[in-house]
Amino acid sequence: MTTTIAETVAERLDNDGYEYWAERLSGEPVTDPDRTAQIDLDDLCRHLGARVIRRDGWGIRYVFPDGSAIIDAGSAWDIALSPDCWCWQGAGHGDECTARSSDLGD
Ligand SMILES: [Zn+2]
Question: What is the pLDDT along the chain (106 residues), one digit of tens a residue?
Fold first, then answer.
């Protein structure tokens, strides 16, 4: 099974949706002089080539070149469940999600 870029980012953050700082690897940008050994989620995603999409009331979606995505709601983040909606992989589709019915095969 191939690991997506979003999964790689999640792993760097210990798969903890409340963690926003990862250990910085060589070659990654340093933007915060107080945390030079670390890189935050936003910089990490941008460094990995993410396209940044903002949506009012939802947060930020980082879409990577391989099609995988991370959705940051502001105080927590997770891997995107589907390219068709803003639901989290760990939470499943919400009741009001429009992509929900297609996933149920109906
Ligand atoms: Zn959904």
Answer: 789 999 999 999 999 999 999 999 999 988 788 889 999 999 999 999 999 999 998 899 999 999 999 999 999 999 999 988 999 999 999 988 988 765 455 4
Report CA(16)–ligand 1 centroid distance (Å): 20
Q: How many domains does the chain have?
A: 1
Q: What is the extent of the structural domain holding 97?
A: 5-103
Distance 66 CA to ligand 1 centre (A): 20
Amino acid symbol at 1: M
CA–centroid distance, 40 to ligand 1, in Å, is 26
CA distances from 70 to 23, 80, 94, 103 (A): 18, 5, 17, 19
Ligand 1 centroid distance, CA of 86 (Å): 6
Written as one letter, the residue type at 69 is A
